[in-house]
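Hello,

Our lab assistant flagged a job as stuck in the queue for most of the afternoon. It eventually completed. Since we weren't sure the result was trustworthy after the delay, we are filing this so someone can double-check. Below is the sequence as submitted and the structure that was eventually returned. Let us know if re-running is recommended.
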Amino acid sequence: MSLFPPAENPEYLVHRRWMERAIALAQAAGEAGEVPVGAVVVADGKAIAEAENRRERDHDPTAHAEILALRAAGKVLNNWHLNDCTLYVTLEPCPMCAGALILARLGLLVYGTDDPKTGAVRTVINLPDSSCSNHRLAVIGGILEVLCREQLQSWFAQRRHRELGRGSCHQ
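-- returned structure --
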């Protein structure tokens, strides 16, 4: 799904660099018991905000990495319009996050792997290109796709293994 031939395009290398940072944030989230998703907001070639999933730790259903990163970026810029920003996130955003990206007027979304269950940018639904969107969001998917997908799959496999090992019995 990526638009770039990896070795030949310098823009791909920039996207790869920031996605590697998002993957590191996702790793930290996974180690803390969260679904491993990380996000970085970049403006003028510099990271201005980053976040990882914190739903479990914050007891907040809206504490997705993307939402937290957008909030932090808005505070840094003292503006909720993020037209000149790029968000890097390891997993295709859900409907809530896709809506927030549209409302923030984000300049570019770069994500790692598709979300076949709740992906709201390309996979299940396409909110940015729908008639309900008041902002046309530029999107690049598939940056370090295999690493992002394997990170999530591994985390969920380990979690299932731990739950089976405890002999969890739902009555």
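-- support follow-up --
The delay was a queue issue, not a problem with the job. The result is valid. The chain is about 40% helix and 20% strand. The chain has a mean pLDDT of 92.
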